Amino acid sequence: MKTVSALFSTATLALLAVHSVEAYSEGFDLTDHTSQLNFYHQATTNLTAEQVALDDTCVVDQVHMFKFLKTWNLSELIPNPDIEVENITALGLQEAYDVGSTFRSKYADLYDAKETVWTNAKERVVRTAQSFMNGFHGEDWDTSLLVQVSNTDKTLGGNTLTPIDTCPQFSGDESSSQTAFAQATGWQNAVSERLESLWPGFGFSTGVALTVMDLCMYQRNYLGKDHLEFCQIFTDDEWEHYAYHKDLGYYYGSGYGVTLAPTVGFPYAEAVTKLLNETETSSCQKIFVAFSQDTQLNAMYSGFGLNYDATYPTNAINTTRNFRSSRVVTMGSRMVTERITCSNESYVRFRINEQVVLLLACQSGPGLTCPLAQFVQYMEARKAEVGDFVTKCASTGGSSELTIFENPVINQCDVKSS
């Protein structure tokens, strides 16, 4: 943190003198290139509104949300770093509150005051979930409705919201692919050399140069979106390479580049599929919300088969890639799975950060949705493809199924809201 603090003060002063030397272009979409450090924003999409539009006969009758709030720190800007570093910011808590309020309003026809919400037990994730509950259920919500699932019990197997942590055989590797990309393209050396030419004698290693790029979003998150001083140091091409560098870390750290990622992500995907396929859930709950961390969410995507790329090269940027971390694991990212009924037929649709995301193998329904019956068949085939959690992970115990949603705190079919 000392290095970061020194950079913050030194680079800001230097920037005053060289502000116009380099900057990304006016039309460049910075938010689509700054990965998990980015504040929450609506994801970029190549789909048009017309392609995903639903007609007036369609209604959402069940919804699932998996959400995380990424935390960050910068001791220079935090008054009490020993206490506050690695905790969420007030801005993050407000964002979670707003999501809860928006979610209740958007799915008002499905809402019930007795709805259970699930979270992994990590403190900052719990605090995020609590803030969501304030917006979702109101300030006086029943605290028993927020169920904490252990994030340290290794014997849970797949019956957890942190399945990466309960899979002993899971082995993600963020850095090797990033190093290979840097060596093949020379982009990190080029950035550090350019910065050193602007601030002679500072000693810009490739690691320090990457830290300065990270500071772009740290600053915007903490001080406000209009603070672009660090961001404007770098060019479009440098941001393109930075984005791919981050994407590689997620792809090979917790995504499809890890053989077991679809396996550990599948229990959540299967649990959602079972609920979607029930005419009435056993508890009649219609909204299912769960909270965890970014890497866990990334594995959940692969459990469903979303954002799939057959290859993710490390020697050059794949400009046509489906997986882009800036679109799916920004701070506060959320995956929403909707069951939609149109003219008495049911369909499944995914939204990630507000944008519709397609299943490559199934999009024949209205607005490129997937017919529910076909989706269930697809998931049955996927189960055979990804394998059994306990077996593949050499798990120390537990189940290969996620069953937490089967036991909400209150059965809404028996207990009416007051």
From TrEMBL:
Keywords: Disulfide bond, Glycoprotein, Hydrolase, Signal
Pfam short name (any one): His_Phos_2
A single MF term (Gene Ontology): acid phosphatase activity
Signal sequence extent: 1-23
CDD domains: HP_HAP_like
Keyword Disulfide bond appears in the UniProt entry: yes
Record-annotated disulphide pairs: 167-393, 216-231, 362-370
This protein's name: Histidine acid phosphatase
